[in-house]
């Protein structure tokens, strides 16, 4: 975990100077080619710099494309709610079984024990898992940023209280508090589950944001803003948080992959998604005894979880490199 | 973690100056314990309230059709004191826990009236065994991989380790567990019945080993090719010889093997800690290895005939003391360094000796248990065998869950170590060290690694309680009756006592690990001690 505490928010610090001299191992390794423009006659905004560095990270770019395909297929194939998708089979109907239900062209992921189309079932599980993961990511990012920013900016008693609350949440193992809350919330449907999971996974982000804010609030531009009478809320939202955006975005991404794994673990233990809703975790849990006889029932949902989590992790890694390229310079 | 930015590699000489002032450190530790106790108290209240509100504790009875339904319900209400307000029940639980300080612990009873304290002791011992082994392994392997990938940044080796690390922490644990059961246990058990490698397998294994080793060792192209060729030849020959000897079913190692391995370990440890040019240190390490092997011969009789855990522990302590003594005798001006080297060599030699004894017992063990690696439970029911075969039995039972827990932790530790190492390797003091002519070993071990360890310590300490939490899943998949089962059954029955016991164990583990981290800080960072 590195930080961008010492970096100049203006963006000059972020410029990977080495690309100009053409000996940067990062550029070679991650992108294969040096910058098309030597950066002398053109200047880039902070956002452009980050985007350029991100798109040079091949693993992250590939992951982004794969994840995009998964999302599109999961939501269009069987449709959402009442809107039908392009996949001809329904996950609720039991079809005639072909052989023992192994994957065929007709049923690419095979059929389950009752003859249901497993592709449709897995897509439905993927939908639910994705919705939960993204909702958890958004909620935990909002809560963590808010708590971290308030604690870091106001200091004093507010900081003490908020950080002790954070400590209380940290000392309880995540799986424990998630299971206890998940058992309560699972009857409220998947959005209820996502809400409580979001409310227990914000702690690390809160600490990171607080650390950032603690150093940013001492900067001269904050002093200047205070001097012209800017209110604290506006200082936080317009001056402090935009400078901590790297930490927040990276952490948000990684919390999504953590949420996918957490949700599937809870569903596997029986404290997560409950029928009639489904998720990739419940699919594995339902069919885990089938591994010896019908391995495809076991492989597909697991591979799906693995692929999604792997893609999100690589995207997070690419974003981290893009926002904080210092770490990637080789020793000189 | 930017405080490592300004950190300078201090020579360890400074340690002596400030060690005498014990009071501020003690005060600091006491304050930390006090703060942690308050946090634990708050957290326990939270978990208690959430647990008793997580469902209906009478659900199973309400749905039952038995004649005396009402009576059973009344009984349970009385047992769980459901009519009392929650704060009274929490207070009584807290008083029971407080009793632990005066010697009469009371963690309450479960729904079925079983004493939770006894259950917890049993469960915690099996879970902590699992988690401790996995964590220690993960620390060693993870940090080693992290350093290697940082030194060989952007090499093929770095990319493959990075990709595997991402793969392993994107892996749903319960899914991987089923795969591990299938491919590591069932297929191995099928294979060991015969115990011979096909020639093609041997070639593949040798190619993989050759590729890995040349990637780790690095160097010029010529040197890499040479390394790969030597490794390939060595592995191929060894595996064919093993086949011919039926080694996998009747393995043996022998005193010669112990001697060679521990000598090699001595050379390796010396080259890492002091550099191979430091003859005194090297001779001290080699002496330790030889003395260790000789004492193995001396103690072979009791070790094979009347082993016990007490004997093993006693011999281990003796081994460490003797090794450190050898270091002190050889040490000269760098006594402390020599003692460290001989101490580590002694520990490794002891482990090699134990491994040798276990290897000797393997074929006998196969005779008792023809499918050695188990997928369920923490020990084979009704297993009869001598001491070493029992150890082997427990070892093969713990193998799969340990591999699983270790892989996941190794993934994150190696990533953290890598980024932490990269950050320190970019510091000015590393460049200074290089420019004043220090060897690469000194730069990496003394200047970069020591400072890189500081943030890693925090992460590992933080992680430990989480690993116990994560072990819930591992235990469930592998059918261990540990803390995970305690927690899961308790939560399913809306029964606070076992859930709170689980929380208590993880909470205390978290507090203890953080204390250890503080102490480790003081050892790593001299500024904290002043």
**Helical residue percent band of chain A:** 55-70%
> In what range is the share of β-strand residues of chain B?
under 5%
Shape descriptor of chain B reads: globular
Largest sheet of chain A: none
Distance between the termini of chain A: 21 Å
The shape of chain A, in one word, is elongated
Rounded to an integer in angstroms, the radius of gyration calculated over CA atoms of chain A is 23 Å
| Assembly of the depicted chains | heterodimer
Contiguous low-pLDDT stretches of chain A (5 residues minimum) are 1-35
Q: Percent range for helical residues of chain B?
A: over 70%
Structural class of chain B, please?
Answer: mainly alpha
Query: What is the tally of beta strands of chain A?
Result: 0
Query: H/E series of chain A, N to C?
Result: HHHHHHHHHHHHHH
Category from helices, strands and their pairing of chain A: mainly alpha
Give the helices and strands of chain B as they follow along the chain. HHHHHHHHHHHHHHHHHHHH
| CATH second-level architecture of chain A | Orthogonal Bundle
Question: Ends of chain B: how far apart?
Answer: 20 Å
Characterization of the model:
The complex is a heterodimer of chains A (332) and B (530). Chain A is an all-alpha fold and 332 residues long. Chain A has a single domain, classed as MetI-like (MetI-like fold). Chain A is 64% helix and 0% strand. Chain A contains 14 helices and no strands. In chain A, helix 4 crosses helix 5 and helix 4 (58-77) crosses helix 14. The longest helix of chain A is centred in the middle third of the chain and has 37 residues, at 118-154. Chain A is elongated and about 75 Å long. Mean pLDDT of chain A is 81; it is low at 1-35. Chain B has 530 residues and is mostly helical. Helices cover 77% and strands 0% of the residues of chain B. Chain B has 20 helices and no strands. The radius of gyration of chain B is 27 Å and the shape is globular. Chains A and B meet through helix 6, helix 7, helix 12, helix 13 and helix 14 of A and helix 2, helix 7, helix 8, helix 15 and helix 17 of B.
